[in-house]
Write a structure and sequence with these properties.
Rossmann fold, binds 2'-deoxy-thymidine-beta-L-rhamnose, six-stranded parallel β-sheet, alpha/beta, five-stranded parallel β-sheet
Length: 356
């Protein structure tokens, strides 16, 4: 089938990240013909840049305006149109669909959530005055919902440890063999300085890999170097491609992630992590985090459960780090559980069945 994915970048990288991951799964694993129309092509290209050229060549990455041409070629209406995160389709594109002989199916791809209410809303029609069929599609963890974007499923960390991506060689050459490795990709507002100070009071070495732009969060780039204890080494890494970032997650002992794509990647990496969930004004993110923790911690001991909840809500590491080994074991078990639950191929495969 032919798919058009519409991606409007609200802020950050998540919108492009999700669209790219979905497009590559549909094309390279399921043999679909996919185009992405995006209002910020450079960001999309950046995320997709590290991938095997054969995979990239299978997906057309196009500017938003390129979709207008469809108005002149209604015959070329695709089979499926995806509105990522409810973005509005361009009027001129929609006009082309109105006069197309065969109407596509429109999918409103929603934000990921672990909340149980999505089970009731997933797959429901969203009737439109123009009559083209449109449905809500909710990604999620439960069997009844739209699944998770799994591809490419990362290999276990030790298998890929030698394949250091070019962009990361310099940072990797600074890593200390006796240090725990932590990656940080979070939103402004996280109590990072206090968190690192607390880590610094522990009797262990930590190498901290700061994602692009995060040195600024610590004022490092402003020539106001913060002083940290010697057991902490801060290393900034550049913005790398999506595959390379996935690799970083699999090579660390602990990750701080955010948004929804890096959140799933941290789980597939099989490592303990803090999910710095996208903060919303009405505090809806707290409900979302609690819903995820209910699933994630279902089979853990009460002690580990309390420690992980503390860590995820930014309690200081000294209060939970003694559970890191147990958490590492849990993270691996959770990875296996996720892959088992999504053995049907996850989001891309479920979406194909849904529209098929
Ligand atoms: O960038 P984000 O904060 O995106 C967010 C979320 O999607 C959020 O739900 C949404 O409401 C908001 O955007 C508008 O976090 P996320 O989802 O983890 O996406 C980051 C993407 O960037 C992910 O695909 C990984 C990728 N990435 C790289 O490719 N290279 C890098 O160096 C880094 C740090 C990330």
């Amino acid at each position: 089938m032919r798919w058009d994915i519409f991606c409007q970048i609200v802020d950050n990288y998540g919108d492009a990240g999700i669209c790219w991951r979905l497009a590559r799964s549909l094309s390279s694993i399921h043999g679909q013909e996919v185009r992405i129309f995006c209002d910020d092509l450079p960001t999309l290209n950046l995320l997709a840049s590290g991938v095997d050229p054969a995979i990239k060549a299978r997906v057309e990455l196009l500017p938003w305006e390129a979709s207008y041409a469809n108005a002149r070629h209604p015959v070329q209406a695709p089979d499926v149109v995806i509105e990522a995160f409810g973005c509005d389709l361009p009027e001129r594109y929609l006009a082309g669909l109105f006069i197309a002989a065969e109407k596509p199916i429109i999918i409103n791809l929603e934000y990921l959530s672990a909340e149980p209410w999505i089970m009731e809303f997933h797959g429901k029609p969203s009737p439109q005055s123009h009559g083209i069929p449109k449905y809500f599609y909710f990604p999620g963890f439960q069997d009844e919902v739209g699944g998770l974007l799994l591809d490419p499923i990362p290999l276990a960390g030790e298998l890929t440890a030698q394949n250091i991506p070019e962009d990361l060689k310099s940072a990797w050459s600074m890593l200390r063999p006796n240090a725990k490795r932590v990656s940080i990709f979070c939103y402004p507002g996280a109590p990072l300085k206090k968190w690192l100070d607390d880590l610094g009071a522990l009797d262990e070495n930590f190498d901290i890999l700061l994602a692009h732009g995060h040195a600024e969060l610590l004022d490092l780039a402003l020539d106001k170097p913060i002083s940290l204890p010697e057991n902490i080494q801060l290393l900034s890494i550049p913005f790398v491609s999506q595959d390379e970032y996935d690799w970083v997650l699999s090579q660390c002992d602990f990750n701080i992630v955010r948004g929804e794509d890096s959140f799933i990647r941290a789980q597939l990496a099989g490592k303990p992590f803090i999910w710095h969930i996208y903060p919303q004004e009405d505090r809806a993110h707290e409900v979302k985090l609690a819903a995820f923790l209910d699933l994630y911690l279902e089979n853990t001991s009460q002690e580990l459960r309390l420690k992980i909840i503390a860590a995820m809500t930014w309690d200081m590491p000294s209060n939970w780090i003694d559970s890191l080994d147990a958490w590492s074991g849990h993270a691996l078990a959770w990875r296996s559980h996720l892959l088992e639950k999504q053995h049907d191929g996850g989001l891309a495969a479920r979406l194909l069945r849904f529209v098929g």
